[in-house]
Design brief:
The chain contains eight helices and 43 strands. By secondary structure, it is mostly beta strands. It has one domain: TonB-dependent receptor, beta-barrel domain (Maltoporin, Chain A, Beta Barrel).
């Protein structure tokens, strides 16, 4: 339980931190400038410009918690996609669910609705300011990226829905009319690793430039399965990805520009290695699964940004169109059939209530978004931004599931045109065809007023409106409810409308030009939605719709530069009041699960980030977070595993459920447990990283060496907190990088070693909420040794 004394201690610690920063700032201001300059290296820390407040601002001047990871850091740490950011940003956790879907959480706020693409994430994900609707699309690689910005805490005013936990914005490199330039890189490594990337910037005139980039990555599986029929070792955790980007920038005048971009990404692999915690094989990279998983992801993004600067304000239009097609198939228990049904230690009884695999989960998303904002350009004490945004999306999904014990382990998914009386549907355990349409619009305004030359007041408000409508049909037990035509014929499940007001109030005080403190209140929200199964009348306690969730954040922080801009220390402390957290809950009726709301929770924590250049050529970077959180109200939640165990214990396994409906429902319903006092999921108590970088002349060239230590503490991966089963273990990882650049050649040779000590760290645990209800683990990549060469011009 979170005691008042612990909260008081955290706040007292943060106040002490701010007092230390303030005192140190005044002491530095009083010191002799000549002495400071003499003690400092010739080059200090450089400013990083972020778009945190819908305008370009120095990271050190933004009164909120924001981290920026530059392209150089991404390359040095071998971070190719969002998953690689684990441990590098305070409070950020990127987990994986079934089929490899990325679940992003910041400070414990994210998504607890795995394998449900109809819900919105808790951390909004943007590429060049365009909101990415489907969480599967977050698995796409970073292509020609300038930096990745991570805003921690609710961003309900300027970024709106889906940002209760924060916002991630991937910033691409824009085309430039300055000069012809480009780069080309190629690398090889263990596991038959191959990589290639390149970019070229071509000025076509003084007003028009184009830029193209590509990226290719491939390697064999980091793990393999031993029981797939006809294959001795079936690769898992392999990679075969191709992406490219093409952009154009037209700037006929210094105050007007149009930037058009498209980003295309394709991935086709055997899927992730998700090892059952009961797998008799002790090697974490060897699985006894018997189904040949596969994963196909194709994303397409088209964006257009028009920017017009006037003396009064900058007018900006951001247009985005997205398409995603995903096919995921995986062994939902991670075991072979014999082990799965005969293992007496299995959480699910060997009586056969569970089924063995999901041969197809197909998802298609099309979305369109339009934002228009105005940002003031005046020189007075009042600066503002206002705008509006409209978003439309349609997500469709098709699911086929089989029971492995019936001999259908390798059966393909059925075409959606399969007729209602086709004998093939008798082998299906479950099938679903559904779609959700969402329409959202919002209006926002935020202003900052200089109360004095050092003290600023910021206030903002946003009105949000969302509407969702759905279509749904399903079948179970091998029998369709249709009497003619296709075996699945979706019908309307009704709709839901919602409105929400979010906002922000903040004060920031610039103690000196290099030191500031701030305090803020912000509110974020995530829209509610439709439970398709409950709307169709197939649930007992799950409601047809679920509520929107909200987070009220109270934060204090400080940002500081000392010692002639060679030492940077940023810190923050926060307290969240979290209401109606959306999570996936089992229903007493089989296949009636849906999204529920946990009424109240509280989260608080401390975060620190720092950089130090003690001497020219040597730099240290570090970050850490300490986080606490628990559910503070009573709620009786039904865990899928507990429901299945109760059903079995009562003597009504799957094939007897429907003939003993009332008794089986009552047995499952009685398995509910109160979650009050449970720890918030995906909230490591401790997390941090330390990196040291040295750069200097060695022979006829320049050498850069970097070492990094990452620690991510253990966490509960679900709100049920079912003992050790629900705990994702901690891990430590060490990365190294050596880069040599011969003089006057524009070339470089880079050696990267990721996970130097070959630790089998658990990235995340995942419990299949449907069917098998098994607990699986996904691991961080094993030791990777990659040698690459590059050329730039």
């Amino acid at each position: 339980m979170i005691s008042k004394s612990r909260i008081a201690y955290a706040l007292a610690s943060s106040v002490s931190l701010l007092a230390f920063a303030s005192g140190s700032a005044h002491a530095e201001e009083a010191a002799a400038a000549a002495a400071t300059a003499a003690a400092a290296p010739s080059e200090g820390l450089t400013d990083i410009v972020v778009t945190a407040e819908r305008r370009d601002v120095s990271q050190q001047q933004a009164p909120l918690s924001v981290s920026a990871i530059t392209a150089e850091t991404l390359k040095a740490s071998n971070i190719n996609d969002i998953t690689g950011l684990n441990g590098t940003v305070p409070g950020l956790v990127v987990a994986r669910s079934g089929g490899g879907e990325r679940i992003i959480s910041i400070r414990g706020i994210g998504s607890e609705t795995p394998e449900n693409t109809n819900t919105q994430p808790g951390v909004s994900y943007h590429i060049d300011g365009v909101y990415i609707f489907n969480s599967i699309a977050a698995s796409a690689a970073f292509i020609d990226v300038a930096q990745v910005e991570v805003l921690r805490g609710p961003q309900g005013t300027l970024f709106g829905q889906g940002s209760t936990g924060g916002t991630i914005n991937v910033v691409s490199i824009e085309p430039s009319t300055e000069s012809l330039s480009g780069n080309l890189n190629a690398g090889i490594g263990n596991y038959n690793y191959m990589e290639g990337s390149g970019a070229v910037n071509v000025p076509l005139s003084s007003t028009l430039a184009v830029r193209g980039a590509f990226q290719y990555t491939k390697h064999d599986g980091y793990a393999y399965a031993t029981k797939v029929p006809g294959v001795e070792k079936y690769d898992l955790d392999d990679q075969d990805e191709t992406g490219w980007r093409l952009g154009a920038k037209w700037q006929p005048a210094s105050n007007f520009s149009v930037v058009l971009n498209t980003v295309q990404f394709n991935s086709e692999t055997n899927g992730p290695a998700q090892k059952n915690i009961l797998d008799p094989e002790t090697d974490p990279r060897v699985l006894t699964q018997d189904y040949p998983g596969r994963s196909k992801v194709k994303t397409q993004l088209y964006t257009g940004v028009v920017k017009w600067e006037t003396p009064f304000a900058t007018i900006k239009s951001i247009t985005g169109y997205q398409k995603l097609h995903s096919e995921q198939a995986w062994d939902s228990d991670g075991l072979d059939t014999e082990t799965f049904f005969q293992n007496t230690y299995n959480p699910i009884s060997f009586t056969g209530v569970a089924y063995d695999h999901v041969p197809l989960w197909e998802s298609d998303t099309k979305s369109w978004s339009q934002e228009l904002n105005l940002t003031s350009n005046g020189s007075g004490p009042f600066n503002w931004v206002l705008g509006g945004v409209y978003l439309h999306s349609k997500n469709s999904q098709y699911i086929n599931e089989y029971r492995g014990s019936t001999g259908d382990i390798l059966s393909p998914a059925l075409p959606t045109s399969t007729t209602w009386n086709d004998p093939a549907i008798e082998n299906l355990t479950y099938a679903e065809l559904s779609s959700i349409k969402r329409d959202l619009y919002a209006f926002f305004a935020q202003g900052t007023y200089d109360l004095t030359s050092q003290l600023k007041l910021t206030a903002g408000v946003r009105y949000n409106h969302d509407k969702a409508t759905g279509m749904f049909d399903s079948m179970s037990g091998g029998t369709s409810s249709q009497t003619s035509g296709a075996y699945l014929q979706p019908s309307s499940t009704g709709g839901r409308k919602g409105d929400a007001w979010t906002g922000k109030v903040a004060l920031d005080y610039q103690i000196t030009p290099s030191n500031m403190v701030y305090a803020s209140w912000t509110r974020g929200f995530k829209p509610g939605g439709i439970n398709s199964s409950a709307s169709a009348g197939n649930s007992y306690s799950i409601l047809p719709t679920y509520k929107q969730e909200t987070v009220d954040s109270f934060e204090i922080g400080t940002k500081n530069r000392f010692l002639g801009d060679t030492l940077q220390i940023n810190g923050s402390a926060f307290l969240y009041n979290y209401r109606n957290m959306q999570f996936l809950e089992e229903d007493p009726i089989l296949y009636g699960e849906g999204i529920s709301n946990a009424p109240k929770a509280r989260v608080y924590g401390l975060e620190l980030e720092g950089s130090y250049i003690p001497t020219e050529g040597l730099r240290f970077d570090a970050s850490m977070s300490y986080l606490e959180g628990e559910f503070t109200s009573h709620y009786l939640a039904l865990d899928p595993t507990n429901a299945a165990n109760a059903q079995n214990a009562a003597g009504y396994p799957d094939y007897l459920f429907w003939t003993n409906f009332a008794a089986a429902v009552a047995a499952r319903d009685a398995a509910r447990e109160d979650i009050k006092g449970n720890r918030i999921p995906k909230l490591p108590r401790w997390q941090g990283n330390v990196a040291a970088t040295w750069n200097g002349q060695v022979g006829p060239g320049e050498l850069t060496a970097r070492a990094q230590l990452i620690y991510r503490g253990k966490y509960q991966y679900r709100l049920f907190n079912e003992g050790d089963v629900d705990i994702t273990p901690s891990y430590t990882q060490v990365n190294l990088m050596l880069k040599y650049e011969p003089q006057d050649t524009n070339t470089n040779v880079t050696l990267r070693v990721v996970n130097l000590f070959d630790k089998n760290g658990v990235n995340s645990r995942f419990s299949d909420p449907y069917g098998s209800a098994q607990v699986m683990e996904t691991f961080i990549p094993p030791r990777q040794v990659i040698l690459s060469v590059g050329y730039k011009f």
